[in-house]
Design a protein that fits this description.
4 strands, Rossmann fold, single chain, alpha/beta, 40% helix, globular
Length: 209
Amino acid sequence: MSDLCDLHDESTVRFTVAHSVTDRPYNVLFLCTGNSARSILAEALINQWGRGKFRGLSAGSHPKGAVHPIALQLLQRMNLPTEGLRSKSWDEFAVPGAAPLDFVFTVCDNAAGEVCPYWPGQPMTAHWGVPDPAAVEGTDADKWVAFRETFRLLDNRIKIFTSLPLATLDRIEVQERLDAIGRTAAAKAGECATPAGRANKSKAVRAAI
C-alpha cells in the first residue's frame, strides 16, 4: 500500500478510547478500482456479520458506475440485502462533512498503490487483496466460480475481523491483526484465480446457475 494511504497511528492508546464514540458503529470502507464486485461483496458481508457494531461502505478510485450483475445475484442467493448497493467514487467519503472513518481496507492491488484522498477520522488501514472475479473470462460457470471464491475469502476475513476484541487491543495490536487477516488464504486465492483452479470448481457450481 502506498505510504500516502497508510495512516497508521503508533499510539498505544486502547483502540476504543481512540475511537471515542459509543453511539455509532465503526465505519468500515472497502476500496477497489471499479467498486463493482469485490468491495461491494465486502460491504454487504460486513453489514451482515457486523450486527450493528460495524457499518459497511464501499467505493472505487475509478468506479464503473454499476454493480456487476453476478455480484448482486450471488448476494441475493446468499440471502444478503442488496438495497442501496451502488458503484461510486471514493471522493464521496473525503468531502467536508463526510462521516468519519474508522477502518479503510483495499481489496485490490491497484487501489492499494494509488494516492488516496485524506480520510476524515484518521482510520486504520490494511490491504486485503483478493482476485478480481469481474476480470474472469470464460463460461458462466467459470465466472460464478470466481465470484464464489472471492465471496468465500472475504467472508472468512470479515468474520475474523468482526470477532476481534477491539476493547482490549491498542492500535498497534489492532494493526497487527488487520495485516494478518489480509494474509489469510492468500495462496489459495492465487490458485483459484488461474484457469486450472477455476476449472476444478466449475462442475460444482453448474447446477447452481
